TrEMBL record:
Domain of life: Archaea
Annotated keywords: 4Fe-4S, Electron transport, Iron, Iron-sulfur, Metal-binding, Oxidoreductase, Repeat, Transport
Annotated EC: 1.2.99.5
Molecular function per GO: 4 iron, 4 sulfur cluster binding; metal ion binding; oxidoreductase activity
The keyword Cytoplasm appears for this protein: no
Protein known as: Tungsten containing formylmethanofuran dehydrogenase, subunit H
Pfam families xref list: Fer4
Domain 4Fe-4S ferredoxin-type: 90-118, 120-148
Top enzyme class: oxidoreductase
Length: 148
């Protein structure tokens, strides 16, 4: 069932991209999918209405709740990252004034957060970060934040 819901989220993104004037080919390339599936999305043949309703509900959730759900639905984390960027238009910022160097964020399973030696600061590798926002929820002092 998670893959059906993820398909619904992809369909919502595809429909929105089409409304912005993107070509079917561009949408297929962005979502790394076959153009025939994008055609089904755009013409309402797939996924089912029920899946679309659930997907739209997930997308309408506040980002703090929607992002973990979307992240948990798929194995391809780069596609998940693209979906999250497209839906929420966010990034993660660090407030070093608040950081207490507890190291919880360094447990990132994607290796996106590292320490640099000057004043024991942390940095985010934007290429490795998949925007799962686990670091934000793990930070005990709110030094990591989701920003638009």
């Amino acid at each position: 069932m998670p893959e059906h819901i993820l398909s619904g989220i992809k369909a919502v993104v595809a429909i929105n991209m089409r409304k912005e004037g993107k070509l079917q080919r561009e949408i297929a390339e962005f979502l790394e999918m076959d153009r025939s599936i994008i055609s089904h999305y755009l013409h309402g043949r797939y996924p089912s209405d029920k899946v679309m309703r659930v997907s739209e509900e997930i997308i309408s959730l506040p980002k703090e709740h929607g992002i973990p759900l979307i992240t948990s639905l798929g194995d391809n984390k780069q596609i998940t990252k693209k979906l999250i960027e497209r839906i929420y238009n966010i990034t993660i910022s660090i407030d070093m004034e608040k950081c207490i160097a507890c190291g919880k964020c360094l447990e990132c399973e994607y290796g996106a957060i590292s320490v640099y030696s000057e004043d024991i600061g942390i940095s985010i590798d934007r290429e490795k970060c998949i925007l799962c926002c686990k670091c934000v929820s793990e930070c005990p002092v709110g030094a990591l934040k989701i920003v638009k």
